[in-house]
UniProtKB/TrEMBL annotation:
<dbReference type="InterPro" id="IPR036179">
    <property type="entry name" value="Ig-like_dom_sf"/>
</dbReference>
<keyword id="KW-0812">Transmembrane</keyword>
<keyword id="KW-0393">Immunoglobulin domain</keyword>
<keyword id="KW-0732">Signal</keyword>
<dbReference type="Pfam" id="PF13927">
    <property type="entry name" value="Ig_3"/>
</dbReference>
<dbReference type="InterPro" id="IPR003599">
    <property type="entry name" value="Ig_sub"/>
</dbReference>
<keyword id="KW-1133">Transmembrane helix</keyword>
<feature type="domain" description="Ig-like">
    <location>
        <begin position="320"/>
        <end position="406"/>
    </location>
</feature>
<dbReference type="Pfam" id="PF07686">
    <property type="entry name" value="V-set"/>
</dbReference>
<dbReference type="InterPro" id="IPR013106">
    <property type="entry name" value="Ig_V-set"/>
</dbReference>
<feature type="transmembrane region" description="Helical">
    <location>
        <begin position="422"/>
        <end position="445"/>
    </location>
</feature>
<comment type="similarity">
    <text>Belongs to the immunoglobulin superfamily. CEA family.</text>
</comment>
<keyword id="KW-0472">Membrane</keyword>
<dbReference type="InterPro" id="IPR050831">
    <property type="entry name" value="CEA_cell_adhesion"/>
</dbReference>
<feature type="domain" description="Ig-like">
    <location>
        <begin position="232"/>
        <end position="312"/>
    </location>
</feature>
<dbReference type="InterPro" id="IPR003598">
    <property type="entry name" value="Ig_sub2"/>
</dbReference>
<keyword id="KW-0325">Glycoprotein</keyword>
Length: 450
């Protein structure tokens, strides 16, 4: 460095100045504390190293970039006013200057300026010696967490690494923005840069970050996503039950399963696998063949776990009009007749009516197990009339056309006389005989006259 304003050029360094310095060294130096300003100097900034309690009559001071005062590490020698002079040494970089009180100023700090600095104060009465450690801090770059994505099974282990500048003094870990506290399961390395999570639970899933800091900066990494694979623990179909569905309707089924990652789905109808592989299934019911038991299967591709659930989907149709056979019946009193209701298999109920009134089964009115056949025993005159069957299911009802039953009386009534039918037969027979007889006589008369 050049000559300071108001300074004067000292004699050669090997001349009487060296003897003067050595004379000062003959006394035991007093430990001299050194203050660093600012306390946490940043890369590219400036710093001052100021020895404290320096004797007012000090004659010179030496600064060394080391813990010793050897010549190779000497930065500079400073002579105070009234004729201040700075004599640069082998370790001078061109950025160091001395000032009042023997303070050392370093400009444009670099990371290589970090290290030990020793000051040797020369005084005939109270020489001093002090050493201080200077650390230059950089503005930390953003750290990274590796791996940036992790998929792990429950009860397993995963490890994350925080990659950061060596200048980082602190390393903190966060999950979903909240600081993590080390525990038996959350284990940190000695430098906090490695996080091991043992016996993983679902609560360990989330976005992990590390935050590094030093006295002049702090910065947080981008998130690293940890996914914990589990399930499926169950599967269910929504809706959970269905009433009979009429043909022509649309039915939407949804398979719900808690699983990470999302499961693969399979649908089965009556043991036959369907093509649908999504969680939803839409049915366009056009045939009774589509009714039955639908089963949803959910399988986790990572855990390989599988769960299933089944739902009955009944189908029904709008019932066509049934028919009663025979459509006309003539039966004698005390006899028996049978009527049959012909209807769709989708009919859940079959009712019988006579003259519009419902019939109740009895010892004489006997129904088959499916109610489709009606047998009337010991027929009475009151059993005559119009018979119908009415079929129904949850979506429709329909009634047949009437089938007429006529009850004919027996030849004699219960008192032993002729029945009205028998009398009518006799009368008709007599009239027919008279007609025939009259016709015969007319023929004979006509022939005789001719």
């Amino acid at each position: 460095m050049g000559r300071l304003p108001g300074s004067w050029d000292p004699p050669a360094w090997s001349g009487p100045w060296k003897g003067l310095l050595l004379a000062g060294e003959s006394r035991t130096p007093t430990p001299t504390p050194v203050t660093i300003t600012p306390a946490s100097p940043a890369l590219g900034g400036n710093v001052s190293l100021a020895p404290q309690n320096v004797a007012q009559n000090f004659t010179s001071c030496n600064w060394h970039r080391s813990t010793t005062n050897d010549e190779t590490s000497r930065i500079l020698t400073y002579f105070p006013p009234p004729n201040p002079v700075q004599h640069n040494g082998p370790a001078h970089t061109g950025r160091e200057t001395a000032g009042p009180g023997c303070a050392l100023h370093i400009a444009g700090l670099t990371l290589s300026d970090t290290g030990n600095y020793t000051v040797q104060v020369q005084s005939r009465t109270s020489p001093g010696l002090g050493t201080v450690v200077l650390r230059v801090y950089e503005m930390l770059p953003r750290p990274t967490v590796t791996p940036n994505q992790t998929l792990v099974l429950e009860n397993r282990t995963f490890t994350l690494r925080c990659n950061s500048s060596p200048s980082a003094d602190t390393v903190l870990w966060l999950r979903d923005g909240a600081s993590l506290v080390p525990s038996d399961r959350l284990v940190l390395s000695s430098d906090n840069r490695t996080l091991n999570v043992l016996n993983v639970t679902r609560g360990d899933a989330g976005a992990y970050q590390c935050e590094v800091g030093n006295p002049v900066s702090s910065i947080r990494s981008e998130p690293s996503t940890v996914t914990v694979a589990y399930g499926p623990e169950s599967a269910r179909i929504e809706p959970s039950e269905l009433p009979p569905q009429p043909l022509g309707s649309l039915v939407h089924l949804m398979c719900v399963s808690e699983s990470v990652p999302a499961p693969r789905y399979h649908w089965v109808l009556n043991s036959t696998e369907l093509k649908e592989t999504r969680s939803s299934l839409t049915l366009n019911l056009t045939s009774l063949d589509q009714q039955g038991t639908y089963m949803c299967q959910a399988q986790n591709p990572i855990t390989t776990g599988t769960r299933s659930n089944a739902l009955s989907v009944p189908c029904t149709e709008m019932l066509p009009r049934p028919t009663v056979t025979p459509n006309q019946t003539l039966v004698l009193e005390n006899g028996t007749f049978t009527l049959r209701c012909n209807s769709s298999p989708s009919a859940d109920t079959v009712l019988w009516l006579r003259d519009g009134a419902s019939l109740t089964p009895s010892e004489r009115l006997v129904l088959s197990p499916d109610n489709r056949t009606l047998t009337v025993l010991g027929v009475t005159r009151s059993d005559g009339g119009t018979y119908q069957c009415e079929v129904g299911n949850p979506v429709s009802t329909n009634r047949s056309e009437p089938s007429t039953v006529t009850v004919a009386s027996s030849a004699a009534d219960s008192s032993g006389g002729l029945s009205p039918g028998a009398i009518a037969g006799i009368v008709i027979g007599a009239l027919a005989g008279a007609v025939l007889l009259g016709g015969l006589l007319y023929f004979l008369l006509c022939k005789t006259g001719g």
